Amino acid sequence: MEQPINILERYWKFTAFRPEQEAIINAVIAGEDTFVLLPTGGGKSLCFQIPALVKEGICIVISPLIALMKDQVQQLNDKGIKAMALTSGITYSQLDTLLDNCIYGNYKFLYLSPERLQQELVQERIKQMNVNLIAVDEAHCISQWGSDFRPAYKNITLLRQLQPTVNVVALTASAKPEVVNDIIKELDFIQPKIFKQSFLRPNLGYMVYHENDKYYRLETILKKYKEPSIVYVRNRKLTLEVSTFLNSKNIGATYYHGGLTHSEKDNNMHAWLQNKKQVMVATNAFGMGIDKPDVKTVIHVNLPESIESYFQEAGRVGRNGERAFAVILKNNSDEVLVKSQFINVLPTVEFVKQVYRKLCNYFQISYGEGENETFDFDFNSFCKTYNYNTIVTYNALLLLDRNSVIALSKQFKNKVSAQFIVPSAQIFRYLETHENFSLIVKSTLRMYGGIFDQNTKMDLAKIAEKAATTEAMVTHVFQQLEKDEIITLHLAKTDAQVTFIEPREDDKTINRIAAIIEQQNALKQQQVASMLAYVENNTVCKSMQLLHYFGETDAKPCGICSVCAGTKKSAKPPDITSIKNKVIELLENGDQSSRNMVAALNCTETDLKTVLKLLLEHQIIKTTPQNTYKLSHL
Fold first, then answer.
1. What is the mean pLDDT of residues 379-394?
2. What is the maximum alpha-carbon separation in the chain?
3. Distance separating alpha carbons of residues 550 and 39, to the nearest angstrom
4. Residue 491 placed within a domain
5. Of the ranges 279-288, 355-364, 450-459, 488-497, which one carries the lowest mean pLDDT score?
6. Are strands 193-196 and 34-37 parallel, antiparallel or unpaired?
7. In 3D, which of 326, 194, 307 has the Cα closest to residue 549?
């Protein structure tokens, strides 16, 4: 049996394990049922990947996140390790072949969603596999008290019946004590080995600032700390708005959200990872599987929905062990905003029923039909058709997804079909005056021979690859060809795929999950209340507040968060005379705004306001029409 450290060096090029990893790996190799709680950045995936490579056979990995499955499979394949994922949109015959490959093809990893375990074919083939380990990723999904409860996770116990001698490792990054106990019970662990790394991050300063002008404070922080940063915002529109603002202030920024194409995501990600851009402005769609050790600041311009998601996003900072900061910028409107974003948009059971019926009608699915059928889905068009609020509807679809009624995958793509409506001789005459279109047109004609006879579906990515250009350029050329009456063009965008997991039964389907929907809505309200309590509590150390939330009650003040730093400052009275003299000295060189003075004097806004009020009362200074300050005698 090869040693774990040798596998780590050969495939991952590391010479030592992170804290806890080696002990976890040894327990898993020894055949123990193992529970692993490692906060974000702790290296959870190696805790099942290395034991699976040490032992003969294949490891089955259960994960709810299609993007994460694809990402891990890609990374393993790039290392020369055979891995596959059973995602949605696979036909029965393809599934049959893929499962055979797992039995006979020396594959080491099979990633699948918990919903797949309901398929008889999958169950039959798993019985025949030489399974060496069952890994349950995002294990908190099995608990109804977890932040992303998915009832389908309860199917995982089926694996224990199909492979009764194989041990299970359950992994999660954030779970409260009651969730941990639930996971161990639900997975039927007997005498489990439990590994829980503390949530304490001693190098990380948790800061909460009350700001009327969040953009100004954002600019100030990013100019002070010029290392890589992530800025989290509430929606897609804000990613562009904030990155544009930062670029206008000479702070290199790019952006990321679920609606970008694959190439846009890759280009923007690459620019940030390679430090060509200092800041990544993103929605919470960003961060999964990202391990950039030198991130200095993670800044939330809008409040997160829960302590769990905040801790995970904040955990992407300071992984190199150096001092780093997780900052929340808040103001008086945030409580209203966070409630309107996360509480007021929770769908009722009745609304979920309505959305499900309309979704079935939208794709013309008859009663009792639709099982395992997959459709491209234009979400905005669906909402427009039925005059639905987009946010409440999206939350209803997420509930249907989490409860295994449908599988919803975000998958932005252009659906394109076209037909050439002029003879080939005319096309070539046209290309004489449009030489820059030539390669794209000729590539299209070679790939789609029947395009003169009928409207033909085309793959933009493949055309772009063959013509050595971008999808955007191919689209532009097609649009010009349509204008010039060379082709007829049908261009539609889809931003998701929907797979119906069970046959249509309308209200019966939703009645089965009604209690879960109501319980999850109540949990969401509790989580938002906890988040608001965290940002408003300015008396207890921020690190201690987070640790208490996750059940660590013996924490000590961190000394570096906004509460601890404020306590230190208030313990030492401000030197008002010194600040007064420095203000006068500054104003001798010209008018100054209070912002400039705070930055120049390195004092608090409160202390500066005290000094300015004093100087105004004694008529030593006065205000200008531009809301700046000047010396009275100048």
1. 91
2. 92
3. 11
4. no
5. 488-497
6. parallel
7. 307
CATH number at residue 599: 1.10.10.10
Is the domain of 58 the same as that of 170? yes
Residue 485 to residues 13, 421, 426, 452, Cα–Cα distance (Å): 56, 8, 11, 14
Backbone angles phi, psi at 476, to 5 degrees: -60, -45
Give the Cα-Cα-Cα angle 500, 501, 504 (nearest 5 degrees). 65
169 and 36 in a single domain? The answer is: yes
Q: Domain check: are 481 and 613 in the same one?
A: no
- 220 and 290 in a single domain? The answer is yes
Q: Is the pLDDT of residue 83 over 60?
A: yes
What residue numbers bound the domain in which 457 lies? 422-485
Nearest to 281 by CA among 272, 294, 270: 272
Distance CA 248, CA 588 (A): 30
- pLDDT of 602 above 90: no
> Same domain for 91 and 139?
yes
Instruction: List the 168-172 sheet strands across, edge first.
Output: 83-86, 109-112, 58-62, 131-136, 168-172, 34-37, 193-196
Say which amino acid occupies 93.
S
For the beta sheet containing 324-330, the strands, ordered from the edge strand earlier in sequence to the opposite edge, are: 204-210, 324-330, 297-300, 229-232, 279-282, 253-256
Domains of the chain: total = 5
